[in-house]
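3-hydroxyisobutyryl-CoA hydrolase, Actinosynnema mirum. Tokens?
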Amino acid sequence: MSDVVIRVERGLGRITLNRPGVINALNRGMVVEIHAALTRWADDDSVRAVLLDGAGERGLCAGGHIRSVHDDARAGGSESIGFWTDEYRMNAAIGAFPKPYVALMDGVVMGGGVGVSAHGSVRVVTERTRLAMPEVGIGLAPDVGGAYLLSRAPGELGTCAALTAAHLSAADVLHCGLADHFVPSAALPALVDDLEFGAHLGVGVEAVVARHTADPGPSALAERAPWVDHCFAADTVEEVLARLEAGGHADTAALITTKSPTALKVALEALRRARELPDLDAVLAQDLRVSSACLRDHDLVEGIRAQIVDKDRAPRWSPATLAEVSREAVLAHF
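Tokens:
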């Protein structure tokens, strides 16, 4: 069966990511197919809305198929740049889609999974949602327009999420503006049925979703906002760490120091620039420049090796410290 199942059911365009064994990780063929479907459906009056979900029980999407990026980078190739180009075009198409685009962000939603869902117009999370932009842990900066989303979260919560690569709960995701509705996972089958029936009858998507929403409870991230806003407003990663240590948040500082020093500095620069860029398309253009530069960095190969290939969780970053990462090296990524 195809890696992505695309069909139209009763006026609802359905996209199901279909690689459950790898939590529906995206490959190039999948993003090309999704983009093509969205292009067809944008002007098809018989398709009133789109619904995205993922096969299996573990989550919507764990991101891009980064083992292939590792192999490409080791070989000095450029296939990954082609993948990212197609992926970011798909992200842009999702952000600009003229009809309701409903994303069921159930379970694991990471990296490319955020890109395929959080740019949609109707984003649904559940109690099982665990969202993260984990790129700095593999020597990459948040891409797929993630910097656009995180830079527009309240205060510095998005900066915190980017530099720590922490997992966000449904309540955190809603508070940060990365989703719109909380629906219990047990109610998702009924929601899908109602969306299909509603699309067939021309009923508004928001009204259908509203019948299934519930209260996700408080956001732990929101409760930490006062000290997060102070610490992560710093101009450099070094100053962020200093403020965290001084404020009694050594655990958060320690988490950041496990990430690639180069990726951390590039990520902070990317978020600060994204805040000033006018729209998603401009941030995606920046993402392509940054990701292409990271492909030639030592840390991308090493980070994927440590986390995915050998799984020893002991990356040997180079440069090994923040102090060794020059401003010139950071700017070269842009």
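The first helix runs from residue 28 to 42.
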